[in-house]
């Protein structure tokens, strides 16, 4: 294979978000070590940042879901060769840009599902940071991965850690997955204490810098529940084979226990740039400018069992994962609506779990849904939840 064939051409879905911006930093970090080209980008409302990215990386395509915002970007980039597109068709075009070999799927929420599915159908390798695609359509998603023979590389720090740890044995030798959680900003709080927490408190994550939605999911422990379901599909294990362990320091990103009771873990300082870089360079490892773990300075690491009673979202997610069908779709859609309402100050913190639980109780599931039925279920749940 010649040098030109080794070039990694990537499209980034969600380039202006937390994962997307760090992914572009990784592209910069790898200059001179790996040949990478950014072929397409898409973002949300931060049009000025999207313009800066387009000017710096000169992608063939840039897309914005909102038609008006896309018009603004088109005007800003009129003097460049980057073509600006709008709407879901624009996101799909970025995901299927012909020259791209890999798509980083980092759009937050259900919105990432359809463009990522189109990327798979076009034979693109997937670096997956959008957990909702597996949560809502895991069976269909994994079947498409196998059918089209593409590589699926996890970008969530926990699932990247599991992926790396599994290289120490065979899949058939895995006894269980130990999925670590920081516990979020409200670790140890009772229901009475959680009742009056504010948005500003919920957005203060102790270890990670993330977008607002994911940070709230971390505070409710829903994020960990979503990751349990994601692990089921990524690694072919049962929901009950994934054990959540609260690890406050976020140094061990997850572990795998094998049948001989040996446990292999992946450790690094809390930084999403590590799993992003590993997905971009796999199966190789390349130098990183990230700081290394100083165990003398760290001193100790702590571990706790999760509190399923006061952080009900974790219990609800496990329940949805066990039920299967469209139940995870219902759970995810209700959570996205509830988190949005909490961020707007319309409901309280504990109301998030209440809304998710009510939706799961009231909406009749479909056992083996098609992709169209999953999309329709998501739409229906969002509409119903607005009237709870």
UniProtKB/TrEMBL annotation:
Q: What class of enzyme is it?
A: oxidoreductase
Q: Which cofactor does it need?
A: Mg(2+); Mn(2+)
Q: Which reaction does it catalyse?
A: 2-C-methyl-D-erythritol 4-phosphate + NADP(+) = 1-deoxy-D-xylulose 5-phosphate + NADPH + H(+)
- Output the Gene3D superfamilies linked to this UniProt entry: 1.10.1740.10, NAD(P)-binding Rossmann-like Domain
Q: What are the protein's UniProt keywords?
A: Isoprene biosynthesis, Magnesium, Manganese, Metal-binding, NADP, Oxidoreductase
Annotated residues that bind Mn(2+) are located at 156, 158, 227
- Annotated residues for binding of 1-deoxy-D-xylulose 5-phosphate: 131, 157-158, 182, 205, 218, 223-224, 227
Domain called DXP reductoisomerase C-terminal: residue spans: 267-383
Q: What is its EC number?
A: 1.1.1.267
UniProt keyword annotation of Manganese present: yes
Looking up InterPro entries in the UniProt record yields:
DXP_reductoisomerase, DXP_reductoisomerase_C, DXP_reductoisomerase_N, DXPR_C, DXPR_C_sf, NAD(P)-bd_dom_sf
What are the residue boundaries of the 1-deoxy-D-xylulose 5-phosphate reductoisomerase N-terminal domain, all occurrences included?
10-138
Pathway, according to UniProt?
Isoprenoid biosynthesis; isopentenyl diphosphate biosynthesis via DXP pathway; isopentenyl diphosphate from 1-deoxy-D-xylulose 5-phosphate: step 1/6
Q: Which domain of life is it from?
A: Bacteria
Tell me a Gene Ontology molecular-function term this record carries. Answer: 1-deoxy-D-xylulose-5-phosphate reductoisomerase activity
Which segments does the entry list as coiled coil? none
Q: Which NCBIfam families match?
A: Dxr (TIGR00243), PRK12464.1 (NF009114)
PANTHER family recorded for this chain? 1-DEOXY-D-XYLULOSE 5-PHOSPHATE REDUCTOISOMERASE, 1-DEOXY-D-XYLULOSE 5-PHOSPHATE REDUCTOISOMERASE, CHLOROPLASTIC
**The family this protein is said to belong to:** Belongs to the DXR family.
Q: What does this protein do?
A: Catalyzes the NADPH-dependent rearrangement and reduction of 1-deoxy-D-xylulose-5-phosphate (DXP) to 2-C-methyl-D-erythritol 4-phosphate (MEP).
Q: Can you name this protein?
A: 1-deoxy-D-xylulose 5-phosphate reductoisomerase
């Amino acid at each position: 294979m010649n040098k030109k064939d080794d070039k990694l051409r990537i499209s980034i879905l969600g380039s202006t978000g937390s994962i997307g911006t760090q992914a572009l930093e990784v592209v910069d970090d790898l200059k001179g070590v790996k040949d990478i080209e950014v072929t397409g980008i898409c973002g949300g409302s931060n049009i000025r940042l999207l313009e800066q990215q387009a000017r710096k990386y000169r992608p063939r395509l840039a897309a914005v879901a909102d038609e008006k915002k896309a018009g603004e970007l088109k005007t800003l980039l009129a003097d460049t060769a980057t073509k600006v597109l709008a709407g879901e068709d624009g996101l799909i075009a970025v995901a299927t840009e012909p020259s791209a070999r890999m798509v980083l799927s980092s759009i937050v929420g259900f919105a990432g599902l359809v463009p990522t599915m189109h990327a798979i159908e076009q034979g693109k390798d997937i670096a997956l940071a959008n957990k909702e695609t597996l949560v809502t359509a895991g069976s269909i998603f994994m079947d498409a991965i196998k059918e089209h023979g593409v590589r699926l590389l996890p970008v969530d720090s926990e699932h990247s850690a599991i992926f790396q740890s599994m290289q120490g044995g065979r899949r058939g030798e895995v006894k269980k997955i130990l999925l670590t959680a920081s516990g979020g900003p409200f670790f140890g709080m009772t229901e009475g204490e959680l009742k009056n927490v504010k948005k500003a408190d919920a957005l203060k994550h102790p270890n990670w810098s993330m977008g607002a939605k994911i940070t709230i999911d971390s505070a409710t422990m829903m994020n960990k529940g979503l990751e349990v379901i994601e692990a089921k599909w990524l690694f072919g294990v049962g929901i009950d084979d994934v054990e959540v362990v609260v690890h406050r320091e976020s140094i061990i990103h997850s572990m795998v226990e094998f049948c001989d009771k040996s446990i292999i873990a992946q450790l690094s300082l809390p930084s999403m740039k590590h799993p992003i870089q590993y997905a971009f360079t796999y199966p190789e490892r390349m130098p990183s400018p990230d700081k290394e773990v100083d165990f003398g300075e760290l001193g100790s690491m702590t571990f706790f069992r999760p509190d399923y009673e006061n952080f009900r979202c974790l219990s609800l997610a496990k329940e949805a994962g066990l039920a299967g069908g469209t139940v995870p779709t219902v759970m995810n859609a209700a959570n996205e609506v509830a988190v949005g309402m909490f961020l707007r100050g319309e409901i309280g913190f504990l109301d998030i779990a209440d809304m998710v639980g009510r939706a799961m109780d009231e909406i009749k599931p479909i056992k083996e849904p098609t992709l169209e039925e999953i999309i329709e279920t998501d739409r229906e749940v969002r509409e119903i939840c607005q009237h709870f």
